[in-house]
Amino acid sequence: MSGVMEIRSICCIGAGYVGGPTMAVIADRCPGLQVTVVDLNQARIDAWNAADLSQLPVYEPGLDAVVGRCRGRNLHFSTDVDGAIAAADMVFLSVNTPTKTKGIGAGQASDLRWIEASARQVAAAARGHTIVVEKSTLPVRTAAVIQTILGAAEGDTPAGRKSFSVLSNPEFLAEGTAIGDLEAPDRVLIGGEDPVAIEALAAIYSHWVPPECILRTNVWSSELSKLTANAFLAQRISSINSIAALCEATEADVREVARAIGADSRIGSKFLKAGPGFGGSCFQKDILNLVYLCRHYGLSEVADYWEAVVNLNAWQQHRISALVVRQLFGTVTGKRIAVLGFAFKADTNDTRETPAIRICGDLLEEGAQLAIFDPKVSAEQMALDLGQQPGQGEGVWQKVADPLEAVRGADAVLVLTEWQQFAELDWQQLAAVMRQPAWLFDGRAICDAGAARAAGLKVWRVGEG
Ligand code: UDX
Ligand code: ADP
After folding, report:
1. What pLDDT does residue 456 have?
2. CB 13 near ligand 2, within 6 Å
3. 81 lines ligand 2 (CB under 6 A)
4. Any atom of ligand 2 within 6 Å of the Cβ of 14
5. Active-site residue, 171 included
6. Per residue in 46-74, pLDDT tens?
7. Same topology between domain 9-217 and domain 312-461
8. Which atom of ligand 2 is nearest to the CA of 17?
9. How many angstroms separate the CA atoms of 134 and 147, rounded?
């Protein structure tokens, strides 16, 4: 192909946390472009089409307004995957790629079955020339797999000649701030070999992204940059959490340390918040991908180096559950513990890899009675994540409607997500209904510790000696 290719219609396979918000912002910024998001999951598509915008399947501040502006105009949600592929000049692959749970590479490699299935579907249903954009986080060299599957379908068909170009266009949005991240990205990365396809995608972003922020690389660099960016970010969190543990053992305060080191412009102040460890769909998965890749290429020291970031994250979570048990006189059997926050970070309903899973799991194992409150996570999701239904007795959990109900009769409050409302809790009111002596374990250092102490609670804050 040579010359300029104008894109009029795009399709995105996968209506999840990445596909939904990304396509909504593209539709919003490119009114001349028809954007169709497709998914196999009928319930999910129905929720995207819900008249009540508060029912969208992804909770993301500002998303409802963007969807409200474009839906039905140039943004559509559908389960007609083949029809949308056939109509599109460009197809984004935004399907899930979780870590494999069994077989070769179990626990580290990504499960590419959904990528492969969607690539095969594109191969079969596409018409004319189609640009295929890899949007999910994938191990390096996945674009080659997609290219091979599509290549086998290229050639003359009754509907005309079929051909493909594959691009890698990794997503750097963070959940909870997705709309802002998409509207003003630090950079957009486009990896590919076909200059016409690269420029066609760049032209879409040019509607709102300054040209100097659109970076072009080869496919492998693009794929590897995504893994590396997430590995570096996650490494900062494990680094600060390791120092938090040292601060707790000494007279230091990790927030003072973070401020002091963050003032060094070479280090920078972001991503230095100590907490219960990182969660989310990307960090652990991407580092494990990197580890798998390094082992594959015989770089075992490099693999060990990055694996330590993930190991420290798990350690931090077990450390927190262990210290809760220790402070509650070595046993939590039958004790009520209020858990505030279940999502992996504030402003999202996503619970993938949330620290709450491991920490609550440990406490359930110890026989605790957890009263869990989260403003956006459903009880059904908690049941899936905890691997057990709500119940009464020992080693059980239930979802409660507000923090006051959670702490009633509890020996401790454990804060796991930094929802803003937890910074504004009335500790006099809460402490009055708890069983004394009672504890606040603030895993995010978000609560008003002074007020909690004044209300008679014993307080532990992550990283405070
Ligand atoms: C991340 C990357 O930021 C994003 O660029 C990529 O596209 C996907 O993965 P996300 O997982 O949505 O985004 O959220 P992020 O804000 O990066 O937070 C990840 C985890 O790290 C959360 O559990 C968060 O609570 C934790 N975190 C973050 C900390 O514990 N401390 C910090 O200072 C920052
Ligand atoms: P992400 O955070 O990467 O967006 P999600 O799991 O939220 O991940 O979304 C991925 C979506 O992709 C899911 O809704 C899933 O149903 C959808 N999906 C997976 N495979 C296919 C496929 N072959 N065709 C259409 N949709 C698919």
Report:
1. 98
2. yes
3. yes
4. yes
5. yes
6. 999 999 999 999 999 999 999 999 999 99
7. yes
8. 4
9. 11
What is the number of H-type helices and E-type strands within the chain? 17, 15
pTM over 0.85: yes
Rounded distance from Cα 59 to ligand 2 centre (Å) = 16
Residue with tokens 């420290």: 312
DSSP string of 265-305, one letter each residue: TTT-STT---SS---SSSHHHHHHHHHHHHHHTT-HHHHHH
Q: CA angle at residue 217 from 235 to 39, to 5 degrees?
A: 75
CATH of domain 9-217: 3.40.50.720
Lowest model confidence (mean pLDDT) among 69-73, 138-142, 183-187, 246-250: 138-142
Domain boundaries, the chain: 9-217, 312-461
Which protein residue's CA is at the shortest distance from atom 11 of ligand 1? Answer: 280
- Sign of the alpha-carbon torsion through 61, 47, 33, 161: positive
Report pLDDT for 320: 98
**pLDDT range class, residue 2, cuts 50, 70, 90:** low
- Assigned CATH for 312-461: 3.40.50.720
Q: What is the pLDDT of residue 137?
A: 78
Share of the chain above pLDDT 90, in %: 93
